[in-house]
Amino acid sequence: MLNVIEQLNDDLSRVIEGVWRSLVQIRNGVGTGAGTVWHSDGLIVTNAHVLGARGLSVVLSDGRALPARVLAADRAHDVAALAVDVSGLPTISLGDSRRLTPGQWVIAVGHPWGVTGAATAGIVTGAGRALAEMPGPDREWIATDLHLRPGHSGGPLVDSGGHLVGINTIMAGPNVGLAVPTHVIVRFLHQALGSRASADGSTVRAA
User: Which end of the chain, N or C, is less packed with Cβ atoms under 10 Å?
Assistant: First the structure.
C-alpha cells in the first residue's frame, strides 16, 4: 500500500510541475489572479472578472513581468483572452471537459492568497447545465469539492493527466468550487479570435 501511495504522490507531483510551466499570475492594479498560456505566441486565457479596471500585467512562470492587453472578454460566461508580446511560451494540453463524470480527480492550480503556484486536489461532483442552485441557469459548469480561494480565479483546472478541463472561477458554497469548462472556452475563443484559438498541437474544435 505504501508503494501505491508513493507512486500516486510522484505522479501528482509530475502533473503539477507540468501545469506550473503554463501558469501565469495576472495583476490588475488592485489584486491578482491566475491565467493559463493557451498558445505559445502569448495568448492567455483567464476569467473576465480578473481583468479589473486598471492596467494589466502578466508574470510568467520564469518570473518575467510583461504588460498585457485584452483581446476579447465575455462577461456573461466570465472568460477572457489576453496577449503578451512574447513567443515560445510553454502551453498546456487540452482535455475533454464534456467527458467529465462525478468522482473523477481534478487539480486546481493558482495563486490563492498570494501563494504562488499552489495546488489543491479533489473530485468532480457534477458537470453541465443541470446543476441545482448554480449561478446563471443557461451556463455550463464543472462543480468540484475544491475550496477555491482568491487568487485561484482564472487558473487551470486539470484532470489526473494534467490536461486542461476548465478554468477556476468561483465558490458556490462550502467546499463547492465552480469552473468554466474547456469546451466553453474553445467556443468563446473561436468566435472571438478565429483560427488563433487553437492551442498548440490540439485538435479541439469549436462547439
Answer: N
